[in-house]
Amino acid sequence: MKILTLAQKPEKIKCDLLVLGLFEKQYDYSSLDRLIGGAIRKLKFSGEFGKTKLITTLGNLPSQNILLVGLGKKKEFTDEKLRSISGKIARAAKENNHKTVVTNLNSHGLIPVLEGTILSLYTFERKSKPDKKKIDSFSLLVKPSEIAKTQKVIKKIQIICNNVCLVRDLVNQPASELTPKEFAKIAKKIKGVRTKVWGKSELTRRGFNAHLAVSRGSGEEPKLVIMEYGKKGKPFVLLGKGVTFDAGGLDVKPWDAMKDMKCDMAGAATVLGTMKTLAELKLPVHVIGLMPLSENMLGKDAYKQGDIIKSFGGKTIEIAHTDAEGRLLMADSLGYADTLKPSGIIDLATLTGSCVVALGYSIAAVMGDKKIISKLTSASKKTDESIWELPLTDEFKDAVKSQIADVTNSAGRGVGAGSSTAGAFLSNFTKSPWAHIDIAGPAWYLKDNSYTKTGGTGFGVRLLTKFFEEM
Known about the structure:
Number of helices: 16
Distance between the termini: 32 Å
Radius of gyration: 25 Å
Helix content: 25-40%
Largest sheet: 9 strands, mixed
Structural class: alpha/beta
CATH superfamily of the largest domain: Zn peptidases
CATH architecture of the largest domain: 3-Layer(aba) Sandwich
CATH class of the largest domain: Alpha Beta
Strand content: 15-25%
């Protein structure tokens, strides 16, 4: 879909669909309305948020159809509402086979309109007869003096949204196709970053024993993808959990909990998508992305409850539950991240079902370093990718202590707060400024919303990009 700018009056624009936004009790299209016999005024359109009215112009205007869109009360209008309504309009326009769409909604917020429109049109299908409907061009009404600035923003937002969609593609791919090996191949093709991949022999030599333990039950070789962008100054490290399929190990998941577990590498996918975005935007930052990759299966060599594993940094881990595997991959990579002397670390992981119980599917949990969390919160308010801080207290840190090892990978019954105890476990493996984001809810949607379809969401790319922009 081409995204264009137009510096014309609405009544002179030729298109299939002209989208005009109105706040409640607002009426400012009199010149346009006269050309169609006062149809807009006669409708007495309220402007209530989300309400729409389609007017067919019957050849009286170059535009074939006008869609009035209610924006609600002006004082209650937000970027997220604009993002939401833009997504709904784009999907409806595609479904009704409107090839050329023109809108003035960008006058209320350019970035939300672009994000809502681009992201809403994403699809992942393997149907024998795919849907061929599409919008050929989407044009924004702007003042002549704003064309150059608007085109610059369009280019930037296309880069970001395309990489959100890349993450969605990775998360939605069948696990039999997106193995650790195939993920690593995709990472090595990304331009503008320096990428290396460690396989089983290198991980063994370097002592990534927790990572290797998780992979023992699988026929797929584990990988650690390391991507670096920029050179100047101390690096900031992004770490993403990359379990390309999680059967639960010997503590096998029930079928209904396992069926979507191709999504358990969403953290790693988000790191990959963010690294690609930073490179394409040429942001002046130094960032290293770590993506530990493995399957968690039930093969004859699978790791077992009661095993004691020595992690990369030397701490020992008692295995209490084989379905608490993601934190094992991340423990080794957190220890390795410390050796890079980073200015800070952010990890992202679909780590706990407890996070979904606490915060639902649209909010990620965050815990750890207060300064990093403060900067993430600032970025979150601008992108509307919501985060909520959970406590990381001594009580939770005590809960993951083991009687026979340094720590245990599951606090067990009688503690609760599964997200916080998982974070407490991770805190043992780094001494750097560090924040943990549990994306178990917002990384994977069970139903469509206005600009995100069921499945992988690409949550975190916009948030982290804004975080590094503000750095």
